[in-house]
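Complex 482.
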Amino acid sequence: PEPQNKIILRKPPRKGAEKRAAAERKTHFDEIYHGLDEAQASYESERCLYCAQKAWCNWTCPVHNAIPDLIRLVQQGRIKEAAQLSHQTSSLPEICGRVCPQDRLCEGACTLKNRSGAVTVGNIERYITDSALKMGWRPSFVAALPRRERVAVIGAGPAGLGCADFLAREGVKVDVFDRHPEIGGLLTFGIPPFKLDKSLLSQRREIFSEMGIQFHLNCEIGRDKSFHQLTEEYDAVFLAMGTYGLMTAGLEHEDAPGVIQALPFLIANTRRVMGLEDSSDYPWTELKGKQVVVLGGGDTAMDCLRTSVRREAASVTCAYRRDEASMPGSRKEVTNAREEGVEFLFNVQPQYIARDARGQVSGIGLIRTEMGAAGPDGRRRPQPIAGSEFELPADVLIMAFGFRPHAMPWLQGSGVRRDDDGLIITGGTRRLATQTTRDNVFAGGDAVHGADLVVTAMAAGHQAARDMLAMFERNAASQLAV
Ligand code: FAD
Ligand code: SF4
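Predicted structure with flavin-adenine dinucleotide bound:
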């Protein structure tokens, strides 16, 4: 056979999905990336080396999608078979194909990465399911026999949906409760529509409902229904409530008019795009003609910046305390934000919030920083430079510092323990990986591992489904023994 390095050298360059021009896309909230068409999918699939012995892409994907096999099916034009295979490991492939940070996961491990460019795994994954669903294909996972067990899932984000999907495939009856009017969690009420079209979630709701999963939307556990009721009525409960505690900068006047938090801002915006009524829980802020400054450098900050551009702010600036290379946000999103007209100010740390005579925000006091020695987390710490203070004018300040676990008073006294940071404790000696400190209650996703990714939350939901099935089998075996 031909040596592999010769084959590698012959591979044509990565092209990937095309995106809308910045001047056009910033006038609306439609997705910026087009899907691949048949010819583009064929081109990209031809580039795969099918590294049979060492398909690292498959191992770095948190749900271990069978990537080379999927790509080969695309190359052969067997799209429905590819979709069926894709759904064996994933509950939301068309969504992960859009929102996973592939450069850090599957594509980051591609053998071609530093040669002609990684195979566009995310684009291909999206192409498979988008195309198959358009052809009328639906995932067919019919359980051999319906089981008698019933499971309640709290939270319809990727963790809850992953768990519900894998249980329903095994014939378990699943009820999913969520306080929002649509499924998806942060997929719907977090990630902006220009990254993920919201109709994909209603399409998924229909597919899951056809599989027998029952959704109870606009239903908040702890308010509309008690946790105790669920543990009494169901054989097991899965906790997948995410993390919604908002981080602050620790500055005075963070409650001043004009200072807003990232997530309520994004939710209020998405509700309008979806045609839902405004909600007092997520107040609307008018940005047209205003000077907006976003504090933070992660993907949530990028989403706020690009949403502000589309809401016709006069200027949109990102202020981040470290240098560009240290930004936690994906490179792709930083590039997209720049193209859309966002200004970046690196190495600046907030000092104070400036207000006008009415108490309204008028600016943010900043001090310049330089990168110092690495801290315990391995990241270099920004050091303020004495005498470099200045004030940046702002009408609206958006705080995008990340998330921590939120209060869940309804869990108190339930036997489900949380650690000092508020994360739900799972696993440990003689416990299944996703089992909490209460036997028939399981947990996963951001509520357990902290704010992370869609695909890791979905993987945790799958694991919880496997753990619950193992518990049901064990319980059934011990009943037979008696
Ligand atoms: P969530 O998605 O938060 O879902 C939890 C659900 O539980 C919510 O629907 C909530 O309403 C519901 N809930 C909570 N409490 C109750 C209750 N008491 N009763 C009923 N329902 C309840 N990840 C990526 O991979 N790519 C991205 O591009 C990306 N962008 C992001 C952008 C933003 C702005 C944010 C905030 C996050 C982003 N993430 C991204 C992270 C990703 O969205 C999360 O890690 C993932 O959604 C976590 O899934 P989850 O199921 O654990 O929780
Ligand atoms: Fe890559 Fe994410 Fe798809 Fe896995 S789920 S193959 S990491 S895009």
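Residues 99-100, 154-160, 177-180, 185-187, 190-191, 195, 220-222, 240-242, 263, 266, 299-300, 303, 445-447, 451-455, 457 surround flavin-adenine dinucleotide (ligand 1) (CB under 6 Å).
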